[in-house]
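User: Before I run my own analysis I want an independent prediction to cross-check against. Here's the chain; please return only the structure tokens and, at the end, one sentence I can use as a sanity check.
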Amino acid sequence: MSVQRQELQKLIRDLGAVPPAVRRALRSGGMVKAGQPALLEVRRRAGWSSRIPGATTLQPSSGSRPGITIRVSASKAPHARPYEHDGSPGEFRHPYFGDRRRWYTQAARPFFYPGVQAASGAVAEAVADIVTQVAEDHGF
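Assistant: Structure tokens:
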């Protein structure tokens, strides 16, 4: 069951009594469970690194806009951002072992944006399943 974001937002607007229950369901681990495919895909695509997968975490957010945030710790994997290269293939330059007189060109290895995009369908489907379950629990 593939549901677009607009359809999900329309469903929440249409079911006026359900959003507080949906937020509770999402807060109680629903978003963490729904976001796991994206987290795993980002980690899988960064498998060439020994530090990036372990530095990648998922944090749920609640309130009026429940969601998830996937982060790569810059202190644990400082090389992640240059390799990500804003999700674009190509090359980046950096000083050779900190020597600013010698620069080295290296190929980018995007892992974050492509990983999130590849898992977006699974995440949307998991959130839609949660919303559907809560709606059914409330007699809709």
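Sanity check: The chain has one domain: 5-137.
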